[in-house]
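Predict structure. Chain length: 118.
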Amino acid sequence: MKSAPAHQRCAVEAALDAIGGKWKGLILYHLTRSGTLRFNELKRLLPGVTQRMLTKQLRELEAEALVLRTVYAEVPPRVEYRLSAEGLELRPVIEALREWGVRRENSRGAGTAHAHAC
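Prediction complete.
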């Protein structure tokens, strides 16, 4: 009988590795709501994100097969992002996080800013 590896990767750890980070969850959220978005549309929806960071996060989501990138041969080039079939599976998770966040922020009391439904 084989012994278990010293560290078996937890499924939650694997999931958070794929979608973790300050901007990935918000990118996934906006793509679930809008379907397909161009780079600059995403950038406008994410105040505070730099072009470099947004590019990095989108590339990582693409590498995880959660986001599909389509480049159109136009001048200027047009690039669109949408969720892959695997990314679409995250819809109920993202929606549950949004609802939890609204409830959490709204229950924190009068002294804090209340979350909006995005």
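Summary: The beta strands are 36-38, 67-72, 78-83.
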